[in-house]
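Translate sequence into structure tokens.
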Amino acid sequence: MTTPGTAVSGTDLRLVGFEELSATALRDRLLARRSEFWTGSHLDDATVVGLHDPVFFHQLGGFGAVAMTAHGDDAGYLLGVVSADRLAVVHAVAVHPSWRGRGVAGLLVGRFAALSDAVGARAVQAVAVPGDPAALALGARFGAHVARSPGHAGPGADRLLLTRALPLP
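Result follows.
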């Protein structure tokens, strides 16, 4: 493991597509450690569990990836999909606290954006809870446009849409 606050290099982690792993085992492993990966999140536990719908690991796993250490530990992961209208949707990104602030989420989003661009996606988009500093910082890193979406998750549940045209520079 690298020193806290040190940027991640390609040799510190490897990005593994979900299609290379057992979908059920991976989902179970990530859900078992959700309290670690999602610590500090504005989302409650039921919402976090709901984000991990099996379809993102089985049928849509080709766009998902896990960042793994040299020792096989999970440092972070991304769930995503490209819609029929060519929108690459980042469904969820989580980074283990010991790896935060080192560019892991950026590596995962970069991989997802490149795969999405290769299949014809026109833009990448994520939905965030207002006031989520990590999501806003990641969006800013990629030059995403931020737009408020009132009632996006139901009455009184506003969200932010972070959108960036593809390809990424």
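Note: Helices lie at 23-32, 34-37, 45-51, 104-118, 133-141.
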